[in-house]
């Protein structure tokens, strides 16, 4: 399946241009669409054809720059240059790891940013792993990283996260809701419940399994909450006040917006040996999830059970809460599987 006219974000080391506030046509049918990529989109070091990505209707590309301390994406410089030459607006993100110094991570990220073509989208802090750090510790870590990155770049960073993680691992703090939010929510319609006191999303990561010409494997797909001109304002540092409106749905993602207790219950029952793992597939299909994503979910659960890494505590929290979506569940399990790998 292909998703056109969706959207994303990223960064630069240029100074913020003082801006103003106004209301946008949020997530309209012509909302700018973009991808975000990392080494996962380079299987066997295969290059991305960025001209094909642009021709497939994408407006921007957010490229992973750094992670933790000491890791720089080996494809960052080439992807940034080639995407910019293809006419895409480029950006980047840093994946934070809270067990090492936040200020050193911010400094390393800022240094790498200086190599990216300009103009670029605001810098992004990707925060989706806690590495055993408490919610209070996560809040202190984010605060230190954001303060240092602002000092080094003069720019206000974007926070990338997903609802379950922010509410449970960051304590659902509202301290950072003055920063733009890039929310991962795998579903057809914009989520109506946001974490952390945010009133709206600036960016929406709509799926982790989009297909775009020029990228050899699945990739994340994003929508910018505004228009093309407002996306340019965002690059310049204008703080946008965006309000949500309906966006055309994607049929394949419609089931992902459902509450997930039935599916979580089946996973926990399978992990306890009460039912066969195949029951998960049956429940997923009964909920309207397409066969491909349903099978992928079962395979991920089987992998995590076999490795003793299934996040039982998180699944029990989801089951007790009852309001998290199938998309939230998929993001949680995929992240655990990636970390375990």
Label this structure with key terms.
single chain; alpha/beta; TIM Barrel; 2 domains; 11 helices; globular
Q: Care to describe what's here?
A:
It is a single chain. The protein has 341 residues and is of the alpha/beta class. The chain folds into two domains: 228 residues, Alpha-Beta Barrel (TIM Barrel); 83 residues, no CATH class. It has eleven helices and eleven strands. It is globular. The N terminus is likely disordered.
- Rg of Cα set: 19 Å
Task: Please give the count of helices.
Answer: 11
Using the coordinates above, name the CATH class of the largest domain.
Alpha Beta
Q: How many domain regions?
A: 2
What's the helix-strand series?
EEHEEHEHEHEHEEEHEHHHHH
Distance between the termini: 27 Å
Shape: globular
Quantity of strands, as a count: 11
| SS content category | alpha/beta
Physical arrangement of strands within the biggest beta sheet: 2-3-5-6-7-8-9-10
Compute the average pLDDT: 89
Quick one: CATH superfamily of the largest domain? Glycosidases
For the record, the CATH architecture of the largest domain stands as: Alpha-Beta Barrel
- Portion in strands: 15-25%
Largest sheet properties: 8 strands, mixed, barrel
- Which fold does the CATH topology of the largest domain refer to? TIM Barrel
Would you identify the regions where 5 or more consecutive residues have pLDDT less than 50? 1-25
**Estimated helix fraction:** 25-40%
Organism: Corynebacterium aquilae DSM 44791
Protein name: Hydrolase
GO molecular function: lysozyme activity
Transmembrane segments: 263-284
């Amino acid at each position: 399946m292909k998703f056109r006219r969706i959207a994303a974000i990223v960064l630069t080391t240029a100074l913020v241009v003082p801006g103003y506030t106004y209301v946008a046509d949020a997530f309209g049918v012509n909302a700018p669409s973009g991808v975000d990529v990392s080494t996962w989109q380079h299987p066997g070091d295969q290059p991305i054809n960025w001209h094909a990505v642009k021709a497939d209707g994408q407006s921007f590309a957010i490229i992973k720059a750094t992670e933790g301390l000491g890791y720089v994406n080996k494809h960052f410089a080439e992807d940034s240059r080639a995407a910019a030459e293809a006419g895409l607006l480029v950006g980047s993100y840093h994946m934070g790891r809270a067990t090492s110094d936040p200020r050193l991570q911010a400094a390393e990220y800022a240094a790498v940013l200086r190599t990216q073509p300009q103009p670029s989208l605001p810098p992004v802090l990707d925060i989706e792993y806690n590495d055993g750090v408490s919610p209070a510790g996560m809040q202190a870590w984010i605060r230190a990283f954001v303060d240092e990155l602002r000092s080094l770049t003069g720019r206000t960073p974007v926070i990338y996260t997903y609802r379950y993680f922010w509410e449970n691992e960051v304590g659902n703090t509202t301290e950072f809701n003055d920063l733009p939010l890039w929310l991962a929510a795998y579903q057809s319609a914009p989520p109506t419940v946001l974490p952390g006191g945010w009133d709206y999303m600036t960016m929406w990561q709509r799926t982790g399994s989009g297909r775009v010409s020029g990228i050899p494997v699945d990739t994340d797909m994003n929508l910018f909450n505004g228009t093309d001109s407002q996306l340019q304002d965002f690059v310049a540092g204008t703080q946008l006040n965006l309000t949500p409106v309906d966006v055309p749905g994607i049929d394949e993602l419609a089931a992902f917006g459902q509450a997930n207790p039935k599916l979580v219950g089946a996973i926990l029952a399978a992990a306890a040996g009460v039912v066969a793992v195949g029951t998960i597939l049956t429940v997923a299909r009964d909920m309207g999830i397409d066969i491909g994503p349903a099978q992928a979910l079962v395979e991920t659960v089987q992998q995590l059970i076999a490795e003793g890494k299934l996040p039982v505590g998180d699944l029990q929290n989801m089951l007790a809460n009852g309001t998290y979506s199938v998309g939230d569940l998929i993001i949680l399990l995929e992240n655990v599987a990636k970390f375990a790998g």
